[in-house]
Design goal:
Radius of gyration: 38 Å
Strand content: 5-15%
Number of helices: 27
Largest sheet: 4 strands, mixed
Distance between the termini: 58 Å
Strand order of the largest sheet: 3-5-6-4
Helix content: 40-55%
Shape: elongated
Number of strands: 12
Length: 754
């Protein structure tokens, strides 16, 4: 059978093979061309039943090849016999259904062969039960190819039939579909292999999109032959004995569209110039939005912003109603876990860089607030806000500069944030976002690489610093454990005995317990000597092993490697596709939970997150509001404009490059972008986060792409071997809003986060 690719019955007729690209003998195509040239051809036949189709096909033979009446009757009886279809369900289930059916199979070894006494009812019942129809695209029609050898024919009988309209031919098809084409090739014995290959060639032709157009529009036999010649022009021939004909070619991941096949054809290239027009169209469909309306200048102050608002306002209601889909629920859970882990990671790094002036609690609160506001009012709500690597580097440099010059870090940072917000408003007013059209793919990839490398560098630096807090004792020897404040005792530790001393003291005199002291042990005994002489070790450091740093590195590497392996589990051969996708989607959180479980089992005092148990700043020396004039000189508010220019460039690049990546044409977004509106929201959030001492937030490229990937819409049906068609992204605001609300609630999970 063919839908897009060929499938064969294998394993003794028990199951269908994997879909594969059909490999045809070249001779079979030449023989098929001869059959089409000399055989019966009925185009736009108007017949309501299969019997009438066969009668007209047999009576429409050319005079020189006209069949005798007896042969026509025998051929009609043969062709009208009930077909036997290959089941697509398990043998056990089929046996159970046949056991309950009044019409049972005769052959115990082949229970799917239908009983000839009630073939029509059984075949129709098989059609209704067949789940293969889910694989058939909507609006599809069936083509039937009947080939074989018979004893009573002396020369082959060939017929190609195209019906005027699709007709349901009962149980002729494996699933209930209207039929449009029929090809029949019957002939004498000794050429059965040739007939079979010719039939495969005809079926392969009918699954080709370009030949389908020719077959549907052909008015004469010559049109059909010309369509086959065009098919032969695109063939690639493999030399004999240079490859294994039994090897199956797997379907490609991306098929060339019929339009591009036509444009690449040498005869068609004359009508398209030198192919530059088609190539330009392909670049425009997948390239940068150079001609997009969102990036065209209006020449008015805030003209781009007003256009963004006018473009997004009609979609605001659907941004919530479109989220009422089960896929959005799984996307919320997936992105929530990714956002939480990112907030934990960045909060820990930021706490180390700023002496806990900003920590995990501030990271959670800032992520929840900034993300929620952005999802409600931004131009592209699929964007996920987060702190990024370049921002982390600037925070570290700013804190070091403030410490070196005795400046209040949070107050200095407040003025920088206010200047950044002002410069952002200027960029929005002057429509500076149109510069995004000049960003190349190299710029995007380079900036993404910078962000990634900063996080990688910071994580490795953090791990290497563990050797300072938890130094590895390279001189440690297990046999010398007694020298580490450990006592060798030769008698079991006795329970304290409270001795009551009888004295003449008054009753108010307090009584003190008396503890028997253990016998002294010879000094200088090693661990093995102590245990060898029947003693036991007594002391707090007897069981100490300085492996905190080593275990931390093992957890560090194990988390990364297990996360990478679980991410690749999607392409594994184990478990059903749904299970593999679920494991791959939650690879990050599964790896973290697994490493945390190992750490809890070992019980070592590895470094943990510093998360306040109350809703208070991580550093008790600061409050929730940063005042502009308190500790720093007055001129700091003016000098802050210089570093603010650098931060503005940084945030503009980070925000807009992410926006360009998310709004590429290849994602088929329907509701448009809002580059100016997004930058306005980020500028407003800079004011609030700076005044409250929360981290600064811009679009996070990786998490935003993961968010879009989790909201992909694909065709519900796809042919065997064909990847589902990408239909676009489920554009809405609710998933991001739910993610950030859950992130805010996670503040109260301090014991778990620790």
């Amino acid at each position: 059978r063919w839908v897009k690719f060929e499938e064969k019955v294998e394993d003794g007729g028990e199951r269908w093979s994997a879909p594969h690209v059909p490999a045809l003998p070249l001779q079979s195509l030449f023989q098929l061309r001869t059959c089409l040239q000399k055989g019966t051809m009925l185009l736009d036949l108007d017949a309501p039943s299969f019997k009438e189709i066969i009668d007209k096909a047999l009576s429409g033979q050319p005079e020189e090849a006209e069949l005798q009446t007896e042969l026509r009757e025998r051929l009609a009886a043969l062709l009208l016999r009930q077909p036997r279809h290959q089941p697509t369900k398990s043998l056990l289930r089929l046996l159970a259904e046949l056991g309950l059916s009044p019409c049972r199979g005769r052959h115990g070894a082949r229970p799917w062969l239908l009983h000839p006494e009630c073939p029509a009812a059984a075949s129709l019942s098989f059609q209704l039960r067949n789940r293969f129809k889910k694989k058939v695209p909507p609006g599809a029609e069936a083509a039937h190819v009947a080939v074989g050898e018979v004893e009573f024919l002396e020369k082959p009988f060939t017929a190609f039939i195209r019906l005027r309209r699709g007709v349901a031919l009962g149980s002729l098809a494996e699933v209930a579909l209207p039929s449009r084409f029929l090809f029949i090739l019957l002939g004498p014995r000794a050429e059965v292999k040739a007939y079979h290959e010719v039939g495969r060639a005809m079926a392969t032709l009918l699954t080709d999109e370009l030949f389908q157009r020719v077959a549907r529009r052909a008015e004469h036999r010559e049109d059909l032959i010309a369509g086959m010649e065009a098919f032969l022009d695109e063939l690639t021939v493999l030399p004999p004995r240079k490859w294994d004909p039994s090897a199956r070619i797997l379907p490609p991941s991306c098929l060339l569209s019929p339009h591009r096949r036509t444009a690449m054809h040498p005869l068609d290239r004359q009508s398209h110039g030198n192919g530059d027009t088609a190539a330009a169209g392909d670049r425009a469909s997948l390239g940068h939005p150079c001609s997009r309306e969102e990036l065209e200048r209006t020449g008015r102050l805030f003209g781009g912003l007003l256009r963004d608002i006018q473009r997004k306002a009609p979609w605001y209601g659907s941004d919530f109603s479109d989220a009422l889909h089960p896929q959005c629920l799984s996307a919320v859970l997936y992105i929530y876990l990714a956002t939480v882990t990112n907030a934990i990671t960045f909060g820990g790094m930021l706490g180390d860089a700023t002496a806990n002036m900003q920590g995990v609690l501030e990271s959670f609160l800032g992520t929840a607030f900034a993300g929620s506001i952005f999802c409600l009012f931004s131009g592209q709500p699929l964007t996920i806000l987060s702190s990024t690597g370049p921002v982390l580097v600037f925070e570290r440099l700013l804190f070091s500069f403030s410490e070196d010059h005795s400046l209040d870090y949070l107050e200095f940072r407040l003025w920088i944030g206010l200047w950044v917000a002002f410069f952002g408003m200027v960029l929005v007013a002057t429509e500076a976002s149109h510069l995004v059209r000049y960003f190349t793919r190299f710029t995007e990839e380079g900036f993404c690489a910078l962000i990634s490398l900063i996080f990688i560098y910071d994580s490795l630096k953090k791990m290497l610093s563990l050797a300072d807090a938890f130094p590895i004792n390279w001189q440690y020897r297990l046999d010398n454990v007694t020298s580490y404040s450990c006592v060798c005792n030769f008698r079991r530790l006795l329970n304290p005995i409270l001795a009551c001393l009888t004295t003449s003291a008054p009753s108010s005199t307090p009584l003190h317990p008396v503890y028997p002291s253990p016998p002294a042990a010879p000094a200088g005994l090693s661990r093995s000597q102590c245990l060898g002489q029947g003693g036991h070790l007594l002391g707090t450091s007897c069981q100490y092993v300085p492996d905190v740093t080593l275990v931390s590195f093992l957890l560090f590497g194990g988390t990364f490697l297990s996360c990478t392996a679980l991410k690749r589990f999607r392409s594994s051969r184990y478990f059903p596709a749904g299970v593999r996708k679920l494991v791959s989607d939650f690879a990050i959180i599964l790896a973290i939970l697994g490493s945390c479980a190992i750490d809890a089992t070992l019980g070592l005092e590895t470094p943990k997150l510093l998360v306040p148990s109350e809703l208070k700043p991580t550093n008790p020396a600061r409050g929730w509001i940063v005042f502009p004039f308190r500790a720093n000189p007055w001129w700091v508010c003016l000098v802050s404009a210089v570093p603010a220019i650098l931060v503005t460039i940084l945030i503009f690049m980070d925000q807009q490059i992410t926006a360009v990546i998310l709004n590429r044409r290849e994602y088929k977004l329907q509701k448009g972008a809002g580059f100016h509106l997004d930058l306005l929201c980020v500028s407003f959030l800079m004011v609030v986060t700076s005044a409250t001492g929360l981290p600064w937030y811009v679009s996070a490229t990786v998490i935003s792409l993961a968010h879009m990937e989790s909201l992909r819409k694909e065709s519900a049906t796809s042919a065997p071997g064909e990847h589902p068609e990408f239909l676009g992204i489920r554009e809405q605001r609710l998933t991001g809003l739910a993610v950030f609300v859950l992130t805010g609630v996670s503040v109260f999970m301090a014991p778990v986060l620790k």
